[in-house]
Amino acid sequence: MTWSGKEERKPAGRMAGETVDPAQVPKRRLYTGAEIPAVGLGTFGSDKYGAAEIAEAVYGAVSCGYRLIDCASVYQNEKEIGGALERLFREKAVTREELFVTGKVWNDMHGEGQVEISCRKSLADLGLEYLDLYLIHWPFPNYHAPGCDGDARNPDSRPFSAEEYLGVWRQCERLVEQGLVRHIGMSNMTIPKLEAVLGQCRIPPAAIEMELHPGFQQPELFRYVTERGIVPIGYCPIGSPSRPERDRTPEDVADTQMPEILEIAAAHQVHPAVVCIKWAVQNGQIPIPFSVKPQQYLENLRCTVQDPLTGEEMEKIRRADRNCRLVKGQVFLWPGAGGWEDLWDPDGPESVPQA
């Protein structure tokens, strides 16, 4: 079986109205003992999908068995997602306790007192009394306007500061104490940044979101995180074919066109995207693929409970790593920065100011 390179997937002989038993979906255990589903639905629609369309996908995904929904204030769709959740609760399709909902504080709300304001706004929009996980979306306060191009620069942007970051983390810790969130976590971090702050966290991060897919496996960071009991959540699990144009560069690797992925997909008679998700779950991370198409998000969930990849196939994908970062973050660069690589501490710990 071969594919033409188009990302459209067809239902594999099944109707999109089917469901997957949430009890059969693998789980990860956080350090508190709480469980989190091993696959979730992302809700970042880039510039291609409106809030109402994404909210309808949340409604459909939860109806078919998803129990993890990854949200963020900057996605500008939490109010609509809240309407979908209210509908699900009203119809008794799911209870609040059965869902695991993630939120994130955006870069322009890092100031003292602003994290709580941001969290309470997300709770109000989502119609929830608490979030299961709340993340610091990016590790610096650098802000860019929604929809800006890749060359946009905010003159107020600045490099990572462990002292500033810990000020934001202290606010997140207070959210736990207030009962507004159950767990807190980080996102888009590097080992040098983690080294600078983890030892000073009173409440440790339960999870860290990071870019993870077959073409960009980040084995050192993955190992660093898991060895410390932190659960890795992987965004762009199939290479984010819907990511903004500003994040695309000629050297990018398309995961669903990697020869190794295509070969394994042919052996299992599935779309290459399914192989990427199977790999992620079996590798120990939590992928959060995004789709508004019922046949796709159903397939993304169903593939985690059937027909696992073999050990040989997992090893083949491990060796296929291209070290190709897709979300480079260049819009967050500060004046005087050399390039997007500076965001990811290529010079190691000495490039990160300590608190």
What labels describe this entry?
355 residues; alpha/beta; TIM Barrel; eight-stranded parallel beta sheet; two-stranded antiparallel ribbon; 10 helices; 10 strands; 32% helix; globular; disordered N terminus
Helix-strand layout with pairing:
Elements: E1 27-29, E2 35-37, E3 41-42, H1 51-64, E4 68-70, H2 78-90, E5 100-105, H3 114-126, E6 133-136, H4 162-178, E7 184-187, H5 191-197, E8 207-211, H6 219-227, E9 231-235, H7 259-268, H8 272-283, E10 286-287, H9 294-302, H10 311-319
Parallel strand pairs: 3-4, 4-5, 5-6, 6-7, 7-8, 8-9, 9-10
Antiparallel strand pairs: 1-2
Helix pairs in contact: 1-2, 2-3, 3-4, 7-8
Strand order of the largest sheet: 3-4-5-6-7-8-9-10
Give the CATH class. Answer: Alpha Beta
Please count the helical segments: 10
* Overall pLDDT: 92
What's the story with the biggest beta sheet?
8 strands, parallel
Number of discrete domains: 1
Quaternary structure classification? single chain
**H/E order of the elements?**
EEEHEHEHEHEHEHEHHEHH
Overview of this structure, please?
The strands form 2 sheets. An 8-stranded parallel beta sheet has the order 3-4-5-6-7-8-9-10. Strands 1-2 form a two-stranded antiparallel sheet. α1 (51-64) packs parallel to α2. It has 355 residues and is α/β, with parallel strands linked by helices. It is 32% helix and 10% strand. α5 links the parallel β7 (184-187) and β8. It has a single domain (22-343), classed as NADP-dependent oxidoreductase domain (TIM Barrel), CATH 3.20.20.100.
